[in-house]
Design goal:
By secondary structure, this protein is of the alpha/beta class. The protein has a single domain, classed as P-loop containing nucleotide triphosphate hydrolases (Rossmann fold, 3-Layer(aba) Sandwich), CATH 3.40.50. 24% of the residues lie in helices and 28% in strands. The longest helix is centred in the first third of the chain and has 12 residues.
Length: 137
């Protein structure tokens, strides 16, 4: 397990994460409410070259961003409000997950059966001093 110690919206942590992404495209972010999942995804998107505003897709369930230099798409999911697997199924998850695009997923537990085998699970936890630790294989 690889650990990155970070402060909220830490651009250095985002760059370290990007250097460890390798060929992975699907990232499942786990952590308690307020652990910093959305904030970290915003920092990663910015470091990748997304110029548009990155917001939590809590109500829309999925937001789409573009990396300006490559025109690559990033899909940012938030399944917090999904209560049943069939609700997520209606979104066409397979189309997103098996595209060549990056997928950042918050609250992935409900859709676990649909996650590809090569999904990289990322864990973010808040430390007593307010900093965060991100752990990934």
């Amino acid at each position: 397990m690889y650990a990155i110690h970070m402060n909220e919206a830490d651009s250095n942590a985002a760059l370290l994460f990007i250097s460890r992404m390798k060929d992975h495209r699907i990232f499942a972010f786990h952590g308690d409410m307020g652990a910093g999942k959305t904030t970290f995804i915003k920092a990663v998107c910015k470091a990748l070259g997304v110029e548009e505003v990155v917001n939590s897709p809590t109500f829309s369930i999925v937001n789409e961003y573009r990396i300006e230099s490559t025109n690559q798409r990033i899909f940012h999911f938030d399944f917090y409000r999904i209560n049943r697997l069939d609700e997520a199924e209606d979104l066409g998850l397979q189309d997103y997950f098996y595209s060549a695009n990056l997928c950042f997923i918050e609250w992935p537990d409900i859709i676990e059966p649909y996650l590809p085998d090569d999904t990289l699970h990322v864990f973010i936890r808040e430390n007593p001093d307010g900093s965060r630790t991100l752990e990934m294989p």
